[in-house]
Amino acid sequence: MKDKELEVQKSTQSESSAKAEGTREGVYYRPRVDIYETEKELTLLADLPGVDPKNLEIDLRDDTLTILGKADVEDEERRYLVREYGVGNYQRQFTLSEVIDQEKISAQLTNGVLTLVLPKVEKAKPRKIAVS
Question: In the Cβ-directed half-sphere of 120, how many Cα atoms lie within 13 Å?
């Protein structure tokens, strides 16, 4: 991934709260992401364990893409023997560049993994020029 195409805002929890105050109480986690690129699009994969699609918000304002998810409170009937995932909120922000067609971004959450497809605008796609 090229830095100029998608900038990852490196912010700590305190920096994040300095820009915008959260309305949810509790602990915030920074989900791990993988981002890869093809000729047509960028794909972002984010780990959001325990987040239900109804508790996931993906917001695009200006050039800032915000992912905010809340993991449900644990089921009282379950007795965890090992628990490595925390319960709380997941938040991550990215700055999108002009090479992303922001109108065509799609999202899917399956088994705790968010897949965001960020299509490139036509002018950003590589192409070969035929010489006559």
Answer: 19
Measured over the CA atoms of residue 87, residue 44, residue 112 and residue 24, the dihedral's sign is positive
Q: What is the pLDDT of residues 64-92, one digit of tens each?
A: 999 999 987 667 788 888 888 777 899 99
pTM: 0.73
How far is it, in rounded angstroms, from Cα 1 to Cα 4?
Answer: 9
3-state secondary structure 106-121: EEEEECCEEEEEEEEC
Amino acid residing at 63: D
The Cα 119–Cα 59 span in angstroms is 16
Q: Which of 4, 27, 15 is nearest to 93 (CA)?
A: 15
Q: For 6-47, write each residue's pLDDT tens digit.
A: 554 443 343 343 455 566 677 889 999 999 999 899 999 999
Q: How far apart are CA 10 and CA 113, in angstroms?
A: 21
Side chain identity at residue 96, one-letter code: L
